[in-house]
Structure formats: structure tokens, C-alpha cells
Hints:
82 residues, mainly alpha, elongated, Spore coat protein
Amino acid sequence: MQQQPGQSGQQNMMMEPPKVLSTKDQLYLSDMLNWNLTATKKANFYAGQCNDNDIKSACQRVAQMHENHYQTLLSLLQQHTQ
């Protein structure tokens, strides 16, 4: 591959991503929060509708998992804004 004029033989490589959230990042994280909140609500709803204790327990575990994901995302966003 030929070098373009003005380019050196070495390229500057980032060792870590920038500590900036773009608008696109913020929108995606907002979507993720909404997805997890909706999944938590649905799983809790279905757990309340179940008569089978095994299925009810599985729905409750799913709800807890999505709530944990929501809380993790929220705490990461709060850390970033401080």
C-alpha cells in the first residue's frame, strides 16, 4: 500500500478509547436503559401471572438480571457525569 503525501511511516494509535460520550453513545445507552427497564417490568408481570412456581422463579430471576443491568448502566453513567 502506498503512503499518502503528508503521512509518516507510523500511525498514531489510541491505547484506550477517549473518555468522551458522543451523542450517539448517549442515545444508545438511553435505549439500553429503556430495554432493561421494559424487560424488568415484563418479567415481573409474567412472574405475577404464573401458577407454576418453577416458571415464576425463572421470571423473577430474569427480572432481577435486567434490573441489575439497568443499575449497572445507570451507575456508570452517573460516574461519567461527575
